[in-house]
Amino acid sequence: MKTYTMRRSEIPLRDEWDVIVVGGGPAGCTAAAAAAREGAKTLLIEATGSLGGMGTSGLVPAWCPFSDHEKMIYRGLARKVFEALKAQMPHVPQDALDWVPIEPEKLKVIYDDLVRGAGVTVLFLTQLGSVETDDKGRIRALITAGKNGLQAMHAKVYVDCTGDGDVAAWAGAEYLKGDTATGELMPATHCFNLGNVDEYAYVNGPLLHANNKNSPIFDILRSGKYPQIPDSHICNNIIAPRTVGFNAGHLWDVDNTDAFSVSEALMNGRKLAAVYRDALADALPAAFGSSFVAATGALMGIRETRRITGDYVLSAQDYIRRASFDDEICRNSYFIDIHGTEKEEKQEGGKREEIKRYGPGESHGIPYRCLTPRGLINVLVAGRSISCEREVQGSVRVMPVCLAMGEAAGIAAAHAASAPGHDVHAVDVIALRRRLREEGAYLPEPAADAAERAASAGTSTGGVRYH
Q1: CA-CA distance, 294 to 276, in Å (whole number)?
Q2: Which of 221, 230, 267, 235 lies closest to 251, judged by CA?
Q3: According to the model, what pLDDT value does residue 177 have?
Q4: CA torsion sign, 404 to 410 to 411 to 412?
Q5: Separation CA 463–CA 461 (nearest Å)
Q6: In which band, very low, low, confident or very high, does the pLDDT at 390 lie, cut at 50, 70 and 90?
Q7: Is 210 helix (H, G, I), strand (E, B) or coil?
């Protein structure tokens, strides 16, 4: 690639922050709110014009489960966000915990109120351009680009909630990306909303999800009329009156760390949404005959890119044995949800699961050490790019888990910012866990029967469909 040497110049420096959080998705919102709640002067930088990431700009139509099939386990700020939205959606039962629909415009305001109420300063429409470091693993400043031009932002501690691990990776952190053998990434999905849907016909018609072997999606695929529809993946929920949100189809070979790749995918995704509308109107005219594409996601639905290597790498064996850790900052019970290659997803039944799902009441811990990048001093990572094996990333990448991880990262960042050296690896995890519990987090003491449960846990090659 050709290079261009920039003219040496000075840019404005903003250095009044204790903590800077980059990325305003679920993890970034709770990280910023928690850091500010601890007394840290906190800046939240977001590339788009709204907070919430995939649940708002990305139009993901439902939360992944908040329960372990017995009780809610993503609590603290995660619970506040979840319950605040549910209270504004009268068609959702107030005791519902799993696969609860999301109305994105309401959720945007909930996140706004969360961070502003905590005293966070938010900077929208601002891109991270570069990360300035010293030779000892310490970030000196972030270079951002926005309507104010180039600016340098300095803080004592930085929290990377970009999803792609941009801050940590650009600061020199080790990372893995995609399949360790092939480098292949999970496919993306461009979510969309259909408006003017006949709710009665939709609710009383056949279940569209591919878990239903009689789903109309299979008739659509067999008809050959809509070859653009790639596979049977079609999650959907009523998100507002006469409006159904769709997390449907796959787009392969999309790399969110490559702006050209994502740009192409967004254009392809918008075209695909229109094809789904026509196919559903054809297959289910009573429900979708008068529908229209009301919105497509401003963000591409990215499932994986980088996994930053931390002080601990959460493994598939940790997941299988329902591991507990002395420094765990949350529990997780979501299944190993890896979307497959084009060949795997297009085969009958889609990609097969390889690790058995948890039973009621089962979960595993996520250690604080998964949030601390190896070799960097004043940086934390929260969200889908934490330190873990690929199989586990297929579980910890979803929004309820990210909300919980973000709150822990925010508290830890504030504590590190107030300590000499601002070393995130030196945070007192006992104090961190105490603060999390005080704010309502679910952090049970390590189970005495962990060995027995680990012995009974196993693997399965059953054909349960991925979501």
Answers
A1: 13
A2: 230
A3: 97
A4: positive
A5: 7
A6: very high
A7: coil
Cβ 27 vs Cβ 111: under 8 Å: no
According to DSSP, the residues that pair with 331 across neighbouring strands are 365
Side-chain-side CA neighbours of 112 within 13 Å: the count stands at 10
Q: Is 178 exposed, middle or buried (0-12, 13-18, 19+ CB in 10 A)?
A: middle
Tell me which of 90-94, 360-364, 438-442, 459-463 is least confident.
Answer: 459-463
CA-CA distance, 102 to 86, in Å (whole number)?
Answer: 8
124, 142 contact by CB (below 8 A): no
DSSP codes of every residue in 220-251: HHHH-S-TT--SS-EEEEEEETTEEEEEE--B
Distances (CA, A) of 249 to 246, 276, 345, 348, 354: 9, 9, 10, 15, 21
Give the separation between CA 113 and CA 160, rounded to whole angstroms: 21
Q: Report in angstroms the alpha-carbon separations of 285 from 210, 216, 249, 327.
A: 19, 12, 20, 54
Helices (H), 224-359: 259-283, 285-288, 316-320, 342-346
Beta strand 243-248 pairing with 379-381: unpaired
- Do 252 and 184 meet the contact criterion of CB atoms below 8 Å apart? no
pTM of the model: 0.94
Q: What is the largest CA-CA distance in the chain?
A: 66
Name the H helices within 92-206: 104-118, 166-170, 199-204
